[in-house]
Design brief:
Order of helices and strands: EEHEHEHEHEHEE
Radius of gyration: 14 Å
Strand content: 15-25%
Number of helices: 5
Helix content: 25-40%
């Protein structure tokens, strides 16, 4: 299971970006965070074309399918939709990993029991 943003686990930072200039200002080992896909499709294509690791906040399985097709590294979603997205990701062998945003470490076990790829804490996301 992937755990991002917990103080015990070293992980890369995720940076919310809203422009190509924002992307250029991130460090090489950072992951850029786009949201929502409908408003950031050009940024997703830019990341894909330039091999920049990126994540997208999604709210539907349809968005998750598009994100994987656009070579997103991570698909971040709420717990309720993760149980629909994860089986699709497994069936179609997504390269993107499904992450659920959590704020309490006691939720890790619940997410793990549901077979979701991983969790991300808000502390891992910079503005």
């Amino acid at each position: 299971m992937i755990i991002i943003g917990h103080p015990w686990i070293k992980s890369n930072c995720f940076y919310r970006v809203f422009s190509v200039e924002d992307i250029k200002n991130t460090q090489a080992n950072d992951t850029v965070l786009l949201e929502p896909l409908i408003k950031s499709i050009e940024l997703a294509k830019y990341c894909q074309n330039n091999h920049i690791p990126y994540a997208v906040n999604v709210s539907t399985p349809n968005e998750a399918i598009f994100c994987n097709a656009l070579n997103a590294n991570f698909i971040i979603c709420e717990e309720d939709v993760s149980s629909v997205i994860q089986p699709i990701a497994e069936q179609y062998l997504f390269d993107a990993k499904v992450l659920v945003l959590i704020s309490d470490e006691k939720d890790i076990v619940k997410i793990a029991k549901n077979g979701i790829d991983g969790v991300i804490f808000p502390e891992a996301i910079s503005q």
